[in-house]
Amino acid sequence: MQISKSKALFEKAKNYIPGGVNSPVRAFRAVGGDPLFIKRADGAFIYDEDDNAYIELINSWGPMILGHNNPMIREAVIKAMENGTSFGAPTAREIEIAELITTMVPSVEKVRMVNSGTEATMSAIRVARGFTGRDKFIKMEGHYHGHGDSFLISAGSGAITMGNPDSPGVTKGTAKDTLLAPYNDLEAIEKLVAANKNEIAALILEPVPGNMGLVLPKEGYLEGLRKICDREGIVLIFDEVMTGFRLAKGGAQELFGIIPDMTTLGKIIGGGLPVGAYGGRKEIMEFVSPAGPVYQAGTLSGNPIAMAAGLSMLNYLNEHPEVYTELNGIGDKIVNGFKTSLDKLGLNYTINHLGSMYSLFFTDQEVFDFASAKYSDTALFGKYFQSMLHKGVYLAPSQFESLFLSTALSDDLINKILAANEAALLEIHN
Ligand SMILES: *Cc1c(COP(=O)(O)O)cnc(C)c1O
Asked: Which residues are modified to N6-(pyridoxal phosphate)lysine (predicted)?
C-alpha cells in the first residue's frame, strides 16, 4: 500500500494546523502511523489521495448511515444551494425539520437546531441549570459529550487516546460542578444524589455509550436512572448524538422505552453537514431564549443547506423503517463472522454489539464501564488497526470507539471484511 501523498500532505499540514488535523483522533496517534488524507468517498468506500480504496466502518463517525455521497442527499444540497447559502433569518425548512424530529424522537416536544453535538450538550446543560435553578450535574466516566469545558472530565475516546482526560484550560471552578459516576452503577448515583441534595440540575449520559468503545446498559439501569431523576427533580439528558437515528429512528430512548427529559442530537441529523440539536419537554424548552431567559444563539444555526441535507436524511429514515432491520442484519453478519473467526483461532476477546454499532475489545474480560474498557490491550489494537487498513478496511483509529455500519455494506463486502478480520487476527498473533 503506497501512501506517499498522504504522508507529504500530513507533513505540510503540521506547519499550519496543530498536529496537522482539525480534530485530534484523526491524527492516528493511538494506532501509530500517519493518517490518510481522503480525496473522496462513495457508497461503502473511502479513497485516499494515493487512490487506495477502503471499505468504511466509521462512516464519518456515524453520520453516513446510508453510505457516502448518497445521491438523494447530494441532490437536496445542490437544490438548496441554488437559492443561496445563508440568510440569518427564519426559513420554512427549519419548521419542517423541527416537526419531523418531534415525531421521530419520543422525548422531543420542542427542539433548537445548533451546529454541532458539542453545542447541543453545552446548551442542554445550561437550559437544565436555568430550569432547575441548580448548578451541578452528573456525568459518567468515559462518556463523551463534545469539548465543552464542563464535560472534559473523564471524557472518553479522543481524550483517553490523547492521554489527558482532564484538559488544561478547564478551570477548577468549572470542574467542581461536574460530578462523576461510573456507568452501569446505580448505587454510585444514589450516593452522589444523597451527598448533593437539591443541588443537581441534570444527569447527562450516552444511554448506550460509544465513546469508550461500545458498552451496553445493564438490565434495569436506564429505568433506574429515570426513577432517581424523577424522585430528585433532576433533568435526565440522553446524549444521543451517536445513537440518535441509528439504533432506531427514535434512538436508544425508543429502543429501550425510557423517555429522558431532554435529548441532544448530532451526527446523522445533518446528513454529513455540521448540525446538532437539543430538545425535550415543552416546559423545559420554553426556558430557551427568546421564549425564556436562558440565552443560546447561532449565526449559522438552521443553515438552509445543512437543513436540506438533514431533512433529506431524516425523511428517508422516517419513511423507511426497514433500514434498521437491514442495518441490524449487517451488524449480526459481521459480529457473528468475527466470533466464528475468534473461536476458530482460539482467541479470547470481548465484542459488544447493538444494531449497527460494535466494538471488538482486546481483552477477555467483560466490558461494562470505563474501568473495564481500560483493560484492553491498546498496543495490540494498534497492530490490528494497521493490519486491517492494509487489507483495505478502514476502522476507527482507537480501541475506545464504536464502529458505525452503513446500508452500503453488501454481502460481498461483508465477506471481504470477515476475511480481512480473520487474516489480521492471525497476523497480529504471529
Ligand atoms: C460526537 C459526539 C459529541 C460531539 O459532537 P460534535 O459534533 O463532534 O461536537 C457529543 N456527544 C456524543 C455522544 C458524541 O458521540
From this structure: 267
58 C-alpha to ligand 1 centroid (Å): 14
Which ranges of 271-410 does DSSP label H, i.e. alpha helix?
A: 282-285, 304-319, 322-345, 370-373, 378-390
Residue nearest ligand 1's atom 6 by CA: 117
- Of 241, 264, 359, the one to substitute when testing ligand 1's pocket (max ligand atoms within 8 A of C-beta) is 241
Domain finish residue from 319, 353, 387? 319
The answer to whether residues 364 and 421 belong to one domain is yes
Domain span at residue 420 reads 4-69+321-429
The average confidence (pLDDT) of the chain is 95
Closest residue (by CA) to atom 15 of ligand 1?
Answer: 242
Q: Does ligand 1 come within 6 angstroms of the Cβ of 206? A: yes
- The verdict on the CB of residue 241 being under 6 Å from ligand 1 is yes
Cβ count near 128 (within 10 Å): 27
The residue whose CA has the least distance to atom 11 of ligand 1 is: 145
Distance 419 CA to ligand 1 centre (A): 32
Active site (catalytic) residues: 144, 239, 267
Any residues with CB less than 8 A from the CB of 187 and at least 6 apart, and which? Answer: none
188, 300: one domain: yes
Instruction: Identify the CA nearest to 101 among candidates 110, 114, 93.
Output: 110
122 and 270 part of one domain: yes
| pLDDT band at residue 91 using 50, 70 and 90 as cut-offs | very high
- List the grid coordinates of 396: 476507527
Q: What is the mean pLDDT of residues 198-210?
A: 98
Domain total of the chain: 2
| Residues 80 and 201 both lie in one domain | yes
From the CB of 116, is ligand 1 less than 6 Å away? yes
Contact 412, 333 (CB under 8 A): no
Whether residue 55 is found in the same domain as residue 131? no
- List the CATH number of the domain containing 376: 3.90.1150.10
For ligand 1, whether the C-beta of 25 sits within 6 Å is: no
Residue where one domain finishes, among candidates 319, 352, 381: 319
Report the pLDDT averaged over residues 141-162. 78
Which of 58, 144, 204, 398 best tests ligand 1's pocket when mutated (most atoms within 8 Å of CB)?
144
Instruction: Assess whether the C-beta atom of 118 lies below 6 angstroms from ligand 1.
Output: yes
Residue percentage of the chain with pLDDT more than 90: 93
Tell whether 226 and 249 lie within a shared domain.
Answer: yes
pLDDT tens, position by position, 362-377: 999 999 999 999 999 9
Residues 39 and 146 in one domain: no
Give me 313's grid cell. 436524511
